[in-house]
Amino acid sequence: MNKEKVEEELKKIWNEICISHSDHEKQAAWEEFKLRVFSSIKKKI
């Protein structure tokens, strides 16, 4: 799986789990999560 596909799948799961939160809260949480996860992956490569 390429990075974009992984990110897309994680976002789908994230949105399903966080259904009780507003779209703004979900987007903010997703951006924070994405920065932590994908920035650490870049450093390891």
Give an account of the 3D structure.
- It is flat and about 30 Å long.
- The longest helix is centred in the C-terminal third of the chain and has 22 residues.
- The chain is mostly helical.
- It is built from two helices and no strands.
- Give the N-to-C terminal Cα separation: 16 Å
Average of pLDDT: 76
**Residue ranges: pLDDT <50 for 5 or more in a row?**
none
Global geometry: flat
Q: Tell me about the largest β-sheet.
A: none
Structural class: mainly alpha
Count helical runs: 2
Order of helices and strands: HH
Helix content: over 70%
Secondary structure tally: strands: 0
- Radius of gyration over alpha carbons? 11 Å
Give a quick precis of the structure:
This protein has 45 residues and is an all-alpha fold.
List the helices and strands and how they pair.
Blueprint: H1 3-17, H2 23-44
List keywords for this structure.
2 helices; mainly alpha; 0% strand; 45 residues; single chain
